[in-house]
Structure formats: C-alpha cells, structure tokens
Amino acid sequence: MIDVKYSLMLILVMGAVTQLLRFLPFAVFSRGTPRPILYLGNVLPPAIMAMLVVYCLKNTSFTGPAHGIPEIVSALLVVVLHKWKHNTLLSIVSGTVCYMLFVQVLF
Amino acid sequence: MNRQTIKYSFLSTIPVMAGYLVLGIGFGILLHDKGYSFWWAVLMSVAIYAGSMQYVGVGLLAGHGSLLTAAFMTLMVNARHVFYGVSMVEKYRDTGAARPYLIYGLTDETYSLVCDPCLPEGIRKKDYYFWVTLMDQSYWVLGSFLGGLLGSVIPFNTNGIDFSMTALFVVIMVEQWEKNKQHIPAVLGIAVTVICLAVFGVSNFLIPSMIGITAGLFVLKGVITKEEADHD
Q: N or C: more exposed end of chain A, with fewer CB within 10 A?
C-alpha cells in the first residue's frame, strides 16, 4: 500500500529544494548583476554544454563488447551532418537512429 | 505573440520532445511499477519538474527514504541548476509576468534551448523563452502521464532512443562553436569534466566539474576576454 501522506511530503520536499535552487540566483542578483556574474553568463553556456555532452556519454564503456563505438560513431555523425547541413532535426534524428541500430541490431 | 514565434519555438523543441516523451514514459512506467498510479507521475512532473531527480525520487519513495535524505539528494542532483540561473539572470530580467514560470521551468534541456539562441528576424526573445519552456514541460508531463497509464506495456523497442538528448547537446555545442570567436570555454568544459569523471567517478563528478569550470573560467578570464577583443 502507498503511504499517501508520506509520499506527498517527500514529493513536496524534492520540489521545494529543486525550485529553491532554480530561484536562488535570480533572487540574489535581482537588483543588478555584478560584473563577474555578467562574465560568467557569457562564457558559461559553451562550457556547460560541453559538460552536458560528457555527462550524457558518461556510461560509455570502452572496455565492453562495443568499445564505445556506438556512442563515438553516432556523435561524430551528428557533428559532421550538422557542420554540413545545419539542419538540427536531420542531425538529431540521424544520430539517434544510428545509435539505436547499433545497440539493437549490432551489439 | 504570433504564429511564426509559436512555429519556430515548436520546431526548436522537437528534439526535446523526443527525449522528454521517452524519458517521461520511462519515469511513469517505473513509478507505476512501485504501485503509484499515473496521477502521481503527473504530480511529480509538475511539483518537481527535474528529470533525473524524479528518477531518483522513485527510488526514495519505494525505499521509504527520509525527508532529510530526499532534501540532500535533491540538493546534490540539482545543484547544477544554480549555474543555469546564474547565466540566465540578465536574459530573463525583462520577461515580465512569465518570469517566475521561466525560472521554474529551467531544466537542462530548456536551458540548452534558451541559453544562447540565434533567433531569426521577427521573433521576440521573451516569447520564444515562454513557448519553449511551456512546450518542453508539456512533453514531460504528457510522457509521465502516458508512462503511468501504460504501465509496462510498451509496443516497440525504444532501446537507445534516449541518445536524442545527447545528439541535441552535441548539435548545440557545434552551433556555439561556430558562433563564438574563441573556444577556450568549450575546451575547458570538456577537459575539466573528463578529468572529474575520471577522478570522482560516474555518480559524483557533476558538482566538482561545475566548480572546476567556474574556477577555470575565472583563472583564464584575462586570456578569454583578450582573445575576444582581438577578434573584434
């Protein structure tokens, strides 16, 4: 049986902490943004996007049977297609289909 | 508000739609397996709205974790959102009534679409922010709902479809690479994260990476700003 009261409390706590973290910088810098934060706002996006790419690929196993080939080939396909065609949807669908074929059919 | 804005926002969010529907369905199924009906999945997707944390939350609910554990886990898993906020403070400053909603809905994927958009002529940034945030959350809520409803009866093999999220981040990285005059932040981001992954392991590397990246960006501030000025 589900403990309704406990479950609601737990969800409330997770929601409150998540939103606290999201609103914090906006509350702290509401009056004006100090220069170091302005600088970070400019240079953080590319650095964090690079971090998220690594984060997505964090479970890639180079020693397993596939040696990381599905991830590497699919990601490279996305890079090459996007450099060439600049079509976001095409790049993403091709990369994803490529990866799905790898993990479902080949490995 | 015009149709062109809505259409452009929708097209931008399609990759997120693929990822969120699949991950949302996965989340709903998992929660359903623990005895929670689809309403719980929808409730969590509205009250928490943070993908990876909701997956962790399923484990906490099932294992009867304490409220304190839940608070600390959330703090650790979602601390990166502070960094998203920091880089959006200026961009969200004049967004009016939509602002609280934009902040509430600033997930990883929404951040990736709003942090540095190259918008075509005629599309107002604040409208784009709003529609992207709203659409992304709709996909996530819909996915959770469907997953909770379907239980474990999924008709086709979706194994590997979550790569769409990786592909989305790669595409955005390529676009930022081409747009920016210098690439120190991107290279630093990769280097620091890979090192932290090796040192701290798969489950603990995100926070050290963010701290390392921020520190690195300040250490290299002179070089980064100089290179930008040289290219102007």
A: N
